[in-house]
Amino acid sequence: MRRAIYPGSFDPVTNGHLDIIERGCKLFDEIIIAILVNPDKQPFFSIDERREMLGAVLKTIERGTCVIQVDHFQGLLVHYALAQKADAIVRGIRAISDYEYELQMALMNRRLEPSIETVFMMPAETYSYVSSRLVKEVFQLGGELKGLVPPLVEARMRDKLASD
Ligand SMILES: Nc1ncnc2c1ncn2[C@@H]1O[C@H](COP(=O)(O)OP(=O)(O)OP(=O)(O)O)[C@@H](O)[C@H]1O
Ligand SMILES: [Mg+2]
What we know:
binds adenosine-5'-triphosphate; globular; 42% helix; binds magnesium ion; Rossmann fold; 18% strand; alpha/beta
């Protein structure tokens, strides 16, 4: 039984995240998508909204026999991973620009908790420039998001903007 944690903000979930989750499903029996609660950051979507969207869009992905759960956590990732009895942390690398930060985090996490490995996965090239931040920026300026986020996420973003 191999269990991985895929941590992130998922504000909102993008097709890039889903690509990494699908790839992770080929390696792990169970993946816990763990939304990091960051009290210092002003999010676009609340934790509950992000959890709900993830739950809905995860129904549409290719998961084989992999069990996928959605959770949220605060504090040190390795403490959370240990509490969940996870074997690994999954992270995505889009470009060299991600590498430096991810390497630093992976090595610090290894120092804090040597029993947990970090596994890096590369997305399809189509998603190599997709980030939640850029998706929000493009959306707020009126750009088209088709193919970058699931249709449900785009609809939720439209609802959110209309309600503000
Ligand atoms: N398009 C993508 N392809 C591969 N990995 C990705 C992609 N988007 C995010 N990831 C990875 O998913 C993990 C969680 O990322 P995070 O929640 O920060 O998403 P993000 O899109 O980078 O959001 P933000 O723009 O707010 O930083 C990180 O390891 C990140 O590198
Ligand atoms: Mg990021």
